Amino acid sequence: MKFNLLTVSLCCVFLTGCSDYEWGWYVLDPSTEQGLTNVKFLVDGFSATISVSLLSMCFAMLIGFFIALPALSANPYIRGVNRVYVESIRSIPVLVLLLWVYYGLPTLMDISLDHYWAGVIALSIAESAFMAEVFRGGIQAIHRGQHEAAHSLGLSYWKTMRLVIFPQALRQILPPLGNQFVYILKMSSLVSVIGLSDLTRRANELVVNEYLPLEIYTFLVLEYLVLILAVSQGVRWLERRYAIPNH
């Protein structure tokens, strides 16, 4: 983590000195009133980015789990339901789905939908297809004998999944879950196009006011870098905490 931040800092210094562009870092200088106000304005976007990403991830995991179950069926028609959903959703660009949900869903269903919940719904749907594949792979990685042992104890299908299979599968899928959360954090920047005041939206608004895009977008890069590195470290800690013993 320190190496990555140091690398980015050195790159910024190098680029600053190797161009005729006159950098105006004063716009983000916290020692001045203007710079401190701008920094606070940008940092305040963390709450929207994190909340949208977390909520979308939770809904995507819930939807993805139930979408993954048909893929485990012996019936080819039931498995087909899974394939149709997964392949259809994965084929739609996230930005297109986001715009369709924001503009199309209220029209078709005659409902009021603000930009926050439109972002959550679109990201949840887009991510659910990937989560379904993650859950399917994790569940199928559990040895068949675990299912048979649970059935021999008289456990129902749902109790078998909840008490026996899913806790073991969760350990298997922690790394891809972390990867997908990082992915959804980055994709959350797209909600800025529908007006949600996240990190990216705030950076765009500040660029319009200050006319210093390189400085502001460099700060935006560092914001996402810190956020995603923190998430990555958290996921690695969880992997170590819940690692499957080798013995």
UniProtKB/TrEMBL annotation:
<dbReference type="Pfam" id="PF00528">
    <property type="entry name" value="BPD_transp_1"/>
</dbReference>
<keyword id="KW-1003">Cell membrane</keyword>
<keyword id="KW-0813">Transport</keyword>
<keyword id="KW-0812">Transmembrane</keyword>
<dbReference type="GO" id="GO:0043190">
    <property type="term" value="C:ATP-binding cassette (ABC) transporter complex"/>
</dbReference>
<keyword id="KW-1133">Transmembrane helix</keyword>
<dbReference type="InterPro" id="IPR035906">
    <property type="entry name" value="MetI-like_sf"/>
</dbReference>
<dbReference type="GO" id="GO:0006865">
    <property type="term" value="P:amino acid transport"/>
</dbReference>
<comment type="similarity">
    <text>Belongs to the binding-protein-dependent transport system permease family. HisMQ subfamily.</text>
</comment>
<feature type="transmembrane region" description="Helical">
    <location>
        <begin position="211"/>
        <end position="231"/>
    </location>
</feature>
<feature type="domain" description="ABC transmembrane type-1">
    <location>
        <begin position="46"/>
        <end position="233"/>
    </location>
</feature>
<comment type="subunit">
    <text>The complex is composed of two ATP-binding proteins (GltL), two transmembrane proteins (GltJ and GltK) and a solute-binding protein (GltI).</text>
</comment>
<dbReference type="InterPro" id="IPR010065">
    <property type="entry name" value="AA_ABC_transptr_permease_3TM"/>
</dbReference>
<keyword id="KW-0029">Amino-acid transport</keyword>
<protein>
    <recommendedName>
        <fullName>Glutamate/aspartate import permease protein GltK</fullName>
    </recommendedName>
</protein>
<dbReference type="InterPro" id="IPR000515">
    <property type="entry name" value="MetI-like"/>
</dbReference>
<feature type="transmembrane region" description="Helical">
    <location>
        <begin position="84"/>
        <end position="103"/>
    </location>
</feature>
<keyword id="KW-0472">Membrane</keyword>
<comment type="function">
    <text>Part of the ABC transporter complex GltIJKL involved in glutamate and aspartate uptake. Probably responsible for the translocation of the substrate across the membrane.</text>
</comment>
<feature type="transmembrane region" description="Helical">
    <location>
        <begin position="46"/>
        <end position="72"/>
    </location>
</feature>
<dbReference type="GO" id="GO:0022857">
    <property type="term" value="F:transmembrane transporter activity"/>
</dbReference>
<dbReference type="InterPro" id="IPR043429">
    <property type="entry name" value="ArtM/GltK/GlnP/TcyL/YhdX-like"/>
</dbReference>
